[in-house]
Each structure stands twice: as structure tokens, then as C-alpha cells.
């Protein structure tokens, strides 16, 4: 089954729009992992197992593994999620984008080496850079559109003339182009930061029911109510609301897994209040 169908099934089966971000930082791990050579895998596995019932998807962030030379842990983590929690899609957060011949290798890395169901992508290099990912119709392509960080406006909000001369911010042109022209296989989604709720509304208005991955709540200050009210699709789904640090490091004590589960449940319930 493809990523989009799996995501829709999971939204309904779990009745949750929560994306659990897996961003391991050993300095923040509970004391029991001190000295454990397999701490990165073991911690992330415990969090995934504890939060799975509240998750519509998982999003491991590749730099958090690669910087630790823990690619093997990432590979085993994705395999564990597929085996222990079948039906919950995994989005590899890698923000790839390069010339087509190189992009083909990045697609192989995400979808074949790591067995991710979807990957985050940077659309800055244009259609041909995305094509090797778009062609994998059963996998999801989650393109940066309006990001959550303070510098998001530096380029993304610049007003550009496109589509026959009409002017609009670049992020809106990105959203409309991907939804209209790049989504022939029905496998596209967009990243929109929770820290920009007005822009989130503008994007939802442009893209119909296209899924939106929304990071930036919790540690980055985004508001859940504004995110859900402005970002939900007509049927009350359409969102993957990501929380990483807010779930992973809810407790550094022996109760870290229970605390992570409670944080994921509480986010699911807060989201559900506004759907
Ligand atoms: O693509 C992403 O996931 C992403 C895009 C964006 O605009 N902002 C953003 O924070 N992210 C990622 O989402 C996660 C947010 O983490 P927390 O702020 O700890 O919830 C990190 O893994 C970021 O790399």
C-alpha cells in the first residue's frame, strides 16, 4: 500500500493527527542509557513503542543519526517500526534536493536503504530534482513550502511574478505548483510551520486536501488551536502535526516512555478539540 493511503487509513484508525518526531540527542537521554553503546536505537525504539497508539506517522530526522555515525540505528529503527507497528508510515526527514542523477541516489537512500515511506524534500532546485522521488508513486514526497524557522521569510515570502504575471509570495507559488503540476502520482505533501498560522491558512486554501506536515509546535512556540483551525482539510484530517522534543524529552527520569506517551496523547486530544 502506498504512503498516502497508509496515512489516510492511519488518520482514521488511530483517530490521531500526531506525527511523533524521532530526533535523538544523547545528552538529553535518561540516565539509564549512560554508557549504552546502542542507546540511540534503544531510546528511539522505546519512544516509538510507547507512542505508537497515538501516532499517525513517525518522523526520524536523519542528521540526528548521521552526526552520531548512527545510520545503522536509524535503519534498524525504521525496520522495527515497520515490524512492530505495521500501518504507521515513516517519514524520513532528510530535506533532500539535487540534480536528477544525484537525486536518484538520495531516493534510493531514503526508500530502499532506510525503507522510509516518505521523505522531506527541498523544492528549490526545481521539478527535475524532484522527479526521481515523484516517480516512486507508492512513496510520499513532502516538500518544504513555508518552514517554521524565523528566517523562513527571507526567501519564501518574497513576492514573485509567475503564472502569467500574477504576483504572490514564493511559498504560495510553490504550494500551487506542487499541488497542480507535480502531484500526478498523488504522492505529494507540503511542510508548513505551525509558527505561521496565517500562511498555513493561505496554503490550505490553495491545495485542497493535500496533506500538510506541520512542525513547530511546542519548543518552537507554534499554537495547536491555530494550526488545526487553519490547517485542517474539509474532512477534519489533512495534517501531520509534528512534535519532537516535546514528546521525546517529556521526562528524563525512569518514566521517560510513559511521559512520552502522555505527551503524545495530550497533543492528540488537544488537536481533536479543534478538528
Ligand atoms: O521538515 C521538517 O520536519 C521541519 C521543517 C520545518 O520547517 N521546521 C522544523 O522544525 N522541521 C523539523 O521538525 C522537527 C521539530 O522539532 P521540535 O521543535 O523539537 O518539535 C525537527 O526535526 C526539525 O528538523
UniProtKB/TrEMBL annotation:
Pathway: Pyrimidine metabolism; UMP biosynthesis via de novo pathway; UMP from orotate: step 2/2
Chemical reaction(s) catalysed: orotidine 5'-phosphate + H(+) = UMP + CO2
EC supergroup of this enzyme: lyase
Active site: residue positions: 95
Keywords (A to Z) from UniProt: Decarboxylase, Lyase, Pyrimidine biosynthesis
Enzyme nomenclature, EC number: 4.1.1.23
InterPro entries, alphabetized: Aldolase_TIM, OMPdecase_AS, OMPdecase_type-2, OMPdeCOase_dom, RibuloseP-bd_barrel
Domain Orotidine 5'-phosphate decarboxylase residue range list: 17-260
One annotated GO molecular function: orotidine-5'-phosphate decarboxylase activity
Entry annotated with the keyword Amino-acid biosynthesis: no
Protein's UniProt keywords contain Lyase: yes
Family: Belongs to the OMP decarboxylase family. Type 2 subfamily.
UniProt-listed PANTHER family: OROTIDINE 5'-PHOSPHATE DECARBOXYLASE
Protein name (Swiss-Prot/TrEMBL): Orotidine 5'-phosphate decarboxylase
Gene field: pyrF
Amino acid at each position: 500500500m502506498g504512503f498516502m493511503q497508509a496515512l489516510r487509513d492511519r488518520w482514521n484508525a488511530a483517530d490521531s493527527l500526531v506525527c511523533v518526531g524521532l530526533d535523538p540527542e544523547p545528552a538529553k537521554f535518561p540516565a539509564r542509557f549512560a554508557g549504552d553503546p546502542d542507546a540511540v536505537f534503544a531510546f528511539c525504539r522505546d519512544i516509538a513503542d510507547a507512542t505508537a497508539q497515538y501516532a499517525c506517522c513517525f518522523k526520524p530526522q536523519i542528521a540526528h543519526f548521521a552526526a552520531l555515525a548512527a545510520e545503522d540505528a536509524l535503519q534498524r529503527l525504521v525496520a522495527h517500526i515497520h515490524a512492530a507497528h505495521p500501518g504507521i508510515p515513516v517519514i524520513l526527514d532528510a530535506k533532500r534536493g539535487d540534480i536528477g542523477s544525484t537525486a536518484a541516489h538520495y531516493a534510493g537512500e531514503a526508500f530502499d536503504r532506510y525503507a522510509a515511506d516518505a521523505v522531506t524534500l527541498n523544492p528549490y532546485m526545481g521539478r527535475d530534482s524532484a522527479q526521481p522521488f515523484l516517480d516512486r508513486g507508492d512513496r510520499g514526497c513532502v516538500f518544504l513550502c513555508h518552514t517554521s524557522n524565523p528566517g523562513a521569510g527571507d526567501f519564501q515570502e518574497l513576492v514573485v511574478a509567475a503564472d502569467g504575471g500574477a504576483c504572490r509570495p514564493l511559498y504560495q507559488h510553490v504550494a500551487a505548483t506542487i499541488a497542480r503540476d507535480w502531484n500526478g502520482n498523488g504522492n505529494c505533501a507540503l511542510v508548513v510551520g505551525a509558527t505561521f498560522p496565517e500562511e498555513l491558512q493561505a496554503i490550505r486554501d490553495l491545495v485542497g486536501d493535500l496533506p500538510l506536515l506541520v512542525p513547530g509546535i511546542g519548543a518552537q512556540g507554534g499554537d495547536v488551536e491555530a494550526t488545526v483551525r487553519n490547517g485542517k482539510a474539509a474532512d477534519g484530517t489533512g495534517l501531520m502535526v509534528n512534535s519532537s522534543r516535546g514528546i521525546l524529552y517529556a521526562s528524563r527520569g525512569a518514566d521517560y516512555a510513559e511521559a512520552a506517551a502522555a505527551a503524545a496523547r495530550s497533543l492528540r486530544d488537544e488537536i481533536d478539540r479543534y478538528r
